Amino acid sequence: MSEHKITLTVNGREMSGYAEARVTLVDFLRDVLGQTGTHIGCEHGVCGACSVVLDGKPVRSCLMYAVMADGHEITTVEGLEGPEGELSPLQDAFWENHAMQCGYCTPGMLIATHTLLQENPYPDEAEIREAIGGNLCRCTGYQQIVEAVQMTAKKIREAS
Amino acid sequence: MDDTTASQEFRYITKKRRVTEDRRFITGRGHFAADYNFPGLLHVAMVTSPYACAEIKGIDATAALALPGVRYVLTGAELFENINPLLSGLDLPNVKRIPLAHERARYAGEWVAAVVAESRHIAEDAVELVEVDYNPIDFVIDPEEAMQSDAPLVHPQHGSNILCDKTWVWGDVDDDFASAPHNLSFRAKWSRNSTVPIETFVVTAKWDEGKDVLDVWASIQMPKYPEQIARALSLPVNAVNVHFDVDVGGSYGLKRGIRQTVIVSYLTCKLRAPVRFNEDRLENMSGGEMHGPDRIFDMDVAYNDDGVMHSLKIKATDDAGCYPGRAPLQLGKPVSAIVGPYRIKSASYNAISVTTNKTSQEAVRGFGQAPTNFAIETMVDKVARALGMNRDEVRRRNLIRADEFPYRIPSGSEYDSGDYHAVLDKLQDSAGWQELLAKRDALRAKGKLAGLGMSTCLEPSGGNSSFEPFLNPKNDTTTWMESCLIKVDMLGSITALMGTSTSGQGHETLLSAVIGEVLERDPDTIRGVHAESLGALPSNSPVGSRMAIMLGGAAAGAAEKIKKQLLEIAAHNFQLPVERLVYDGGDISVDGDPDKVMTWNTLVDIAHRNYHKMPLGSEPGLQAQHTWEVPTGGALPAEDGTVQMYPCYAFEAHIPLVTIDPDTGQVEILDYHMGHDCGTVLNPDIVRGMTFGGIAHGIGAALYEKFEYDEGGQHLSGSFMDYLLPSSHEIPHVEMIKHYTPSPLTTFGQKGSGESGYLGAPAAIASAVNDALAPLGKSIETLPMRVRDLEALINGQTE
User: Fold this and answer.
1) What is the CATH topology of the domain spanning B33-137+200-248+255-287?
2) Chain A CB contacts of B696 below 8 Å
3) Is this prediction's ipTM beyond 0.90?
4) Could A142 and B686 be called an inter-chain contact, meaning their C-beta atoms sit closer than 8 Å?
5) What is the rounded distance in angstroms from the CA atom of residue B350 to the CA atom of residue B169?
6) HSE of B119, CA atoms in CB hemisphere, 13 A
7) Could you say which of A30, A43, B242, B320 is the most buried, measured as most Cβ atoms within 10 Å of its Cβ?
8) B:1-60 residues touching chain A, CB 8 A cutoff
9) Residue B461 in 3-state DSSP?
10) Nearest to A138 among B19, B29, B198 (CB)
11) In CATH, what number does A3-79 get?
């Protein structure tokens, strides 16, 4: 099968590689570009572990072909830190609240809630639960994740 | 002990402290098994059987091998000739387990051949080209049908589908039943489900030709993994190096991929290239080590007018699936707490393990305890209902009292400590039991089906292997240890090694907190390391809710040895006996003369560089290992059938309030309260998280999750579209209160919490649903209580 050249902006850096048309975006990110922070859970769009931000919106990178992302802008979990490697307030709150155990769904959870807070900096619990409703976690029962997002929102409120 | 006194005794443990491991996970820098890459890596995809049972008459891989990029097609026949069968928990010499089906495929989805190619895509393409000549034959799916004499045999050489049928009687069961004014019996079912991690099983093996070592990177959580690999491949264990620093993306008991590992290990030796098998979701759910207990309980209980229960008979029929592995042992572990937290003075237990043409059952969180707790709690609710008593009152009358510990149950386990009444009181108080009853009744008054649930359950912890000799007399294993090695380097920093992987339990954090506590050094300066198996110490891995107890105890023991060495060095240099010295934060001073002090750095320097200042004949450097046996372990079951199983018993009580939509059968959880006592809590955030996660697993098991098979033996739940996992919408906010009854058997009074929540939530949800159904005069004793099951029950289509 022939390969296509794909160029995209990942976490502010332009990156390119070659992939067959059938290669999913998540496989391309992980196997071709070496960005292994994004994880594969179900490969049928249910678990949300592979979530990335594409042009400002969260998407399932297992449900997109890499060629479809050619020319687009992507943020993965590796792109949430500041320029000096400082944790974002959301990452810091995930750490402070132990909003994970095994860490496998965490990149997707961070992407989902990062996007939520960009659109709605003051979400209530129901809105947080709605935002992560498409991201499955088997370790936490979601509670400490909700608490981490609530803490971040509180900090945003206090800072503004 | 209340919250304050629990933490005042300690400097670092019991306090809020960030979890070391979390930092790599929030920045995308975890190192999961699929994140390791190797030049020339080959990928495996599986050819699976479409039949519930079929003879394999031949496999033609010609077309597959002709596809560019395909390197090999491995069959069960080749493996059978070249490896040793995998370990079985029971003594079943005629039930051979080979990683790929050999001569006969025994369940739909079983792996029949492994295709190896330069990419997973090519391997999957080639799977379609492998031609297998099957001869479908009779199969059996229902475990009770499988026990009939005319049932098709899953393993004809074994001569029966019954793998184990044993009965134990502890105490005067017949007399107690005869003398009790009441008894009741019922059947409860726990359907096949599991804890389903989001990461599938992933393993990469690479034969290092320069060293003659098999390197393995796997998402594994299993005791004796390197030894099992070595045995299967006839290698010495010192030629197998398992990299335990791989982060495991959830396991909860399940990640036991020895079949997967033996396949890629065999292939890497054969093909002289690194080989990976990264299960896709279907391979994982239908063919992998993914299914948990699948159990029918027939329960009888004898009780008085006042609700006091005297005796209990349990018959548990468990469907192990087609290859038993360790599955039948999950019938043995619940003997640890076979009468729950209750003063039931006699009991009998009939444990039956049956093989059927389904995917094999593997270990799941609690190792059979959650289903058993569900059956026992259903029984308590039924006693209350039969007598018209309150469910909390019946429990209070039967719970073991605080002044009765240590308490020996009829089957021989001695419960270490507890104050069950205090936890239940505290929980009902904080939850507002009366207000919740009023809320339920107000909902009912509005025409809703509303129910308040209750469960009071135990979590046996500090896992050992007592169930192995208990169910298999040929197995005389009584050793179940854990180890830690602490090294203080020349510049004074502390590194601690453990010989196991972690799947979210925070063992690095555990080591640093415990060692910091003993040596009075800042845990943030202490590094916990997952040693690779060739550099590791004996471990039995994080199973049986044991690491807070066992790894915590090993680390504390090693740290005490380090402290003793430091004191001996100081005593030698002060020319004073150790008893005259004071250890404070790593510095050592003379009692009554605080100006005479040797600092941590000085003492470390002496240990590493000044042998002339060391006590005569002492070992240079500063390192200590501690390996210890599980408390109360070390004995075989007694001849009278009694056995001390796990050492420590945590207690949990749950109160959920639910409504059921009468039109759709949908259950909504309005409130969820839980009281928990796992002794001294080493890290509050970790225990909270495990408990919330356990409750979520329990809600899944109670309401949603089931590996379903149709009459043709086809597995219907191979994806997350068919196997329903609860999301943040289904899992409610949980209000948890803590109580602290320390264990007298452990270093700091800690008990296990790795299974907390899960061991009581299914029972509590079932209790709430049945309370909601009670006004209709209906009940349900089968989990999961799915929407369609409840809708049919409520609307009269089922009994």
Assistant:
1) Aldehyde Oxidoreductase; domain 3 (3.90.1170)
2) 138, 140-142
3) yes
4) no
5) 9
6) 14
7) B320
8) 18-19, 21-30, 32, 34-35, 37
9) strand
10) B198
11) 3.10.20.30
